[in-house]
Design a protein that fits this description.
about 450 residues, alpha/beta, Aspartate Aminotransferase, domain 1, Aspartate Aminotransferase, domain 2, 2 domains, seven-stranded mixed β-sheet, four-stranded mixed β-sheet, 15 helices, 14 strands, binds pyridoxal-5'-phosphate
């Protein structure tokens, strides 16, 4: 099967070995003296799975190579952007061409129009879009916009959903906050989070109660339409539809944070897949094709509040820079080709079914699922419908599994509370090798 690299795939046998990570360890030792925890983002430090992190040297297609020369089949994909495979040749070629023209203009550039048109065409809720540099920035700005548009200060978020690290979202957040078990971060003023109300995911009654207790005070509801920052939790039938109704009834906005799910769950994101259109949407990861990008968009009436069209201020030195726009445009061009999402779904489904089967054969409790190019599992009996239930997963066993998989050449997210990502570059042979590694690793847990 083609692996998206333009070359025939040559399978490399994956066998258990004593992983030599001496260079990784040396680099990470220095890193810890230079940067807090030795990393630029917390989950990378492997604290929740134990052991030392692997220091990457290069990535290509479905693979990552570390500084010791070990090769891993990668299911992190730079935490989501690498949906076409790492360093896709067409993305790299396009980037080279743009690079010749410069790296940042700080002025309008036609590439912004091109990517904006593609996003608007694809994502049902988006009539106008503003580009920023990260998902955090997109979520921070969208919250300001929710407040500016409604004239209300409060927001409802869900336990285990992560919307970046802005102050008002660091309440019962997922991702690294969940991974590290931080309650709320010090440095976040109580006055800021006082306006953040939380409810359990998939619990419409709790949201109803919050609206009843806070009449005319809630600007809106923000959520990951499929949760990828507390493992992998899907919306129960009627949940997204119910939120759409409730927000409408209460004069509040519905915001889908599709930083992770955008162009991954479907080309038009989770909103296209589930047929529920929010008022505003945040994006990131895939639309930057591996370069730093975020975006927020929605109804023109609401987006017209954003400066300079309107009074809500938000700006960015590097926003809409030509390199990030180029990588995004090329990535979306690859994704909108016929059959892309069928291929992604087939790959991921085969992987997920194989993982569940391997765990069962080894007598390891498991529940898990996948949609399109996103998957996740918990080492416990299911179902998992919210963050509280997700916490039943056996974190210690996951740490052992993670290590066993690394030793067999498979790189999983170093946390029991992060979704996994597949790409167009993952071939059938990669999935076969991964499942063999899972069978051996699950067996080794006994
Ligand atoms: C749903 C969601 N929102 C926001 C963010 C924050 O994005 P970034 O890490 O680019 O700041 C993330 C990051 O993982 C995310 O998954």
């Amino acid at each position: 099967m083609a692996n998206g690299l333009g070359k025939p795939f040559v399978p490399v046998p994956v066998t258990a070995n004593e992983l030599n990570t001496s260079k990784s360890q040396a680099v990470f030792k220095s890193a810890q003296e230079l940067m807090p925890g030795g990393v630029s983002s917390p989950v990378r430090a492997f604290r929740s799975v134990g052991g030392q992190p692997i220091v990457f040297d290069r990535v290509k297609g479905p693979y990552a190579w570390d500084v010791d020369g070990n090769r891993f089949i990668d299911y992190v994909g730079s935490w989501g952007p690498a949906i076409c495979g790492h360093a896709h040749p067409e993305v790299i070629t396009a980037l080279h061409e743009t690079l010749e023209k410069g790296t940042s203009f700080g002025a309008p550039c036609e590439l912004e129009n091109q990517l904006a048109e593609m996003v608007i065409e694809a994502v049902p809720s988006v009539e106008m879009v503003r580009f920023v540099n990260s998902g955090t920035e997109a979520c921070m700005a969208v919250l300001r916009l929710m407040r500016a548009f409604t004239g209300r200060d409060k927001v409802i978020k869900f336990e285990g959903c992560y919307h970046g690290h802005a102050d008002m979202f660091l309440v019962k957040a997922g991702s690294g906050v969940a991974t590290l078990g931080l309650p709320d971060s010090p440095g976040v003023p109580r006055s800021t989070t006082a306006n953040t109300l939380t409810a359990p995911y998939n619990d419409l009654e709790a949201v109803k109660e919050l609206f009843a207790e806070n009449p005319d005070a809630i600007s809106g509801v923000i959520l990951e339409p499929v949760v990828g920052n507390a493992g992998f939790i899907t919306p129960e039938p009627g949940f997204l539809e119910g939120l759409r109704e409730l927000t409408k009834e209460n004069g509040a906005l519905l915001v889908f944070d599709e930083v992770m799910t955008g162009f991954r769950i479907a080309y038009g994101g989770a909103q296209a897949r589930f047929g529920v259109t929010p008022d505003l949407t945040t994006l990131g990861k895939v639309i930057g094709g591996g370069l730093p990008v975020g975006a927020y968009g929605g109804k023109a009436e609401i987006m017209s509040m954003v400066a300079p069209a309107g009074p809500m201020y938000q700006a960015g030195t590097l926003s809409g820079n030509p390199l990030a726009m180029t990588a995004g445009i090329k990535t979306l061009e690859l994704l909108r080709q016929e059959g892309t999402y069928d291929r992604l779904s087939a790959t991921t489904q085969r992987l997920m079914e194989g993982i569940l089967q391997a765990a069962k054969e080894a007598g390891v409790p498991i529940t898990g699922s996948s949609i399109s190019a996103m998957f996740g599992f918990y080492l416990c009996e299911g179902p998992v419908r919210n963050f509280e239930e997700a916490k039943s997963t056996d974190v210690e066993a996951f740490g052992k599994l993670h290590r066993a998989m690394l030793e067999r050449g498979v790189y999983l997210a170093p946390s029991a509370f992060e979704a996994g990502f597949t790409s167009l570059a993952h071939s059938e042979a990669d999935i076969d090798a991964t499942l063999q590694a899972f069978r051996e690793s699950f067996a080794s847990l006994k």
